């Protein structure tokens, strides 16, 4: 059976080579790395794995490797092609422990709705929601035309935020939905976290969800999660000034307008003014008092 090895590259560098078969146990990998760093001149061990090899990346993360970027077309891929590689490094002084939390999306209840992790099987619903005229109108960063490949890229980006500990997205479903209790009605999530201080929430909805308070119920659940689990003191939410529907959702969740940023929102028609909202934790004093 092949095993993990540390290949000495000289000049204080080495590369971790993992087996193509079963992965080593975390304890065995840590023992291997500790033995490698027993050599006095070794300063850095690097690892290159396919960007979507999540099980391997999770193992390396647990062993202390930091994600340092991506190399395009670096590894041999299927069918004779090439695939992008995630690059991780472990320095001599780094502990053999995770450098930060690898987030796991919990299931949440949201006023009769359920927030669950996104899945590959949700791609058709993502395409329908993000190709919708209203979504395209107000979210200028959304690709146009919106294709299944764009949806898969977005799913990879949400997974990357979990791995980096920088954000979390949920699919919103309605268990009472006669068209399907598990079909995605939209997305809601938090990001841009300043630990212990604040974060931003954002959402989009499928046309099937509109007029059902789906966005408001889902956003309220994520705001509660931000206060109770993330421990932030303030949650931010933004919308284009002219996006009346989105602003109604934000205001229904108890956010207060604190300003307008000139040309701060990017829409399909170009940059427009953006309404700035926030909501403080219940124990925080009113910032306007």
UniProtKB/TrEMBL annotation:
Can you tell me where the transmembrane regions are? Answer: none
Q: Where is the N-acetyltransferase domain?
A: 113-279
A Pfam family hit: Acetyltransf_3
PROSITE patterns according to UniProt: GNAT
Q: Supply the InterPro entries for this chain.
A: Acyl_CoA_acyltransferase (IPR016181), GNAT_dom (IPR000182), Ribosomal_N-acetyltransferase (IPR051908)
Output this protein's name. GNAT family N-acetyltransferase
């Amino acid at each position: 059976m092949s095993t993990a090895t540390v290949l000495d590259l000289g000049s204080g560098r080495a590369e971790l080579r993992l087996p193509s078969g079963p992965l080593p146990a975390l304890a065995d990998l840590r023992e291997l790395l500790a033995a490698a760093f027993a050599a006095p001149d070794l300063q850095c061990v690097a690892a290159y794995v396919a960007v979507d090899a999540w099980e391997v990346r999770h193992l390396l993360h647990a062993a202390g490797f930091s994600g340092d970027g991506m190399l395009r077309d670096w590894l041999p891929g299927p069918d004779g092609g090439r695939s992008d590689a995630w690059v991780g490094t472990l320095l001599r002084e780094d502990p053999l422990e995770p450098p930060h939390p690898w987030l796991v999306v919990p299931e949440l209840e949201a006023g009769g709705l359920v927030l669950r992790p996104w899945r590959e099987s949700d791609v058709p619903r993502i395409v329908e929601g993000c190709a919708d005229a209203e979504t395209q109108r107000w979210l200028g960063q959304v690709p146009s035309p919106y294709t299944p490949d764009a949806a898969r890229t977005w799913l990879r980006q949400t997974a990357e935020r979990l791995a980096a500990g920088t954000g979390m997205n949920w699919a919103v479903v309605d268990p009472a939905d006669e068209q399907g209790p598990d079909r995605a009605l939209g997305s809601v999530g938090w990001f841009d976290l300043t630990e212990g201080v604040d974060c931003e929430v954002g959402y989009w909805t499928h046309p099937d969800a509109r007029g059902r308070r789906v966005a408001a119920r889902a956003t309220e659940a994520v705001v509660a999660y931000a206060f109770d689990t993330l421990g932030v003191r303030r949650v931010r939410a933004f919308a284009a000034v002219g996006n009346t529907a989105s602003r109604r959702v934000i205001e229904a969740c108890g956010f207060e307008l604190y300003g307008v940023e000139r040309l701060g929102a990017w829409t399909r028609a170009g940059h427009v003014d953006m309404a700035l909202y926030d909501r403080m934790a219940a124990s925080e004093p009113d910032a306007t008092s």
